[in-house]
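Standup notes
- HV: blocked on the assembly model, inputs below
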Amino acid sequence: AQKITQTQPGMFVQEKEAVTLDCTYDTSDQSYGLFWYKQPSSGEMIFLIYQGSYDEQNATEGRYSLNFQKARKSANLVISASQLGDSAMYFCAMRIYGNNRLAFGKGNQVVVIP
Amino acid sequence: GAVVSQHPSRVICKSGTSVKIECRSLDFQATTMFWYRQFPKQSLMLMATSNEGSKATYEQGVEKDKFLINHASLTLSTLTVTSAHPEDSSFYICSAKVGVETQYFGPGTRLLVL
């Protein structure tokens, strides 16, 4: 079974600065997808970015980029130019191809301060 | 992104009653929807996979008679918590699979059983 690890404690980030959220995963499968979701205090899970295991380039989506290092099994999320609205829990997730299930990490709490 | 709605957003009920939560895909058809449960400050745990026109697939440890899932149309899945007890109080969130990879989540339903 796949396992997602997010171990960073809660983080305070200065507005306009960049922040990196760590995510490592463990799987014996070669084909999988990695996701990051944002969950603000309202509870909704907002899809941010996706990286396929065979994608050679790191995924980017606006201010979000994914630093994918396959050999190290890490998929860190980088948020550039933090905004106050970025304050939320951030979850890393993985899906094995051919399996519908998403496995989630425990999440990282980010608080952006002005 | 794709829009998924949930109703109600929050519900308080008495112990022993049943509660139905609806999950709708608003601008697309979803043959597969997922139901998750999230306790405070914890990650999302997949409860079941809801397939249109067929029985739901439940995760290990989830009581199918307790959490009834119906996916009668391509845009609606319902989760009924039967004979609810205080330990069923939680945040229930659904998602719908869009395309090959991405799951889009509803806003969630906070259930409090007194």
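- HV (later): unblocked. The mean pLDDT of chain A is 93. The two ends of chain A are 41 Å apart (CA to CA).
- Next: hand off to the docking folks.
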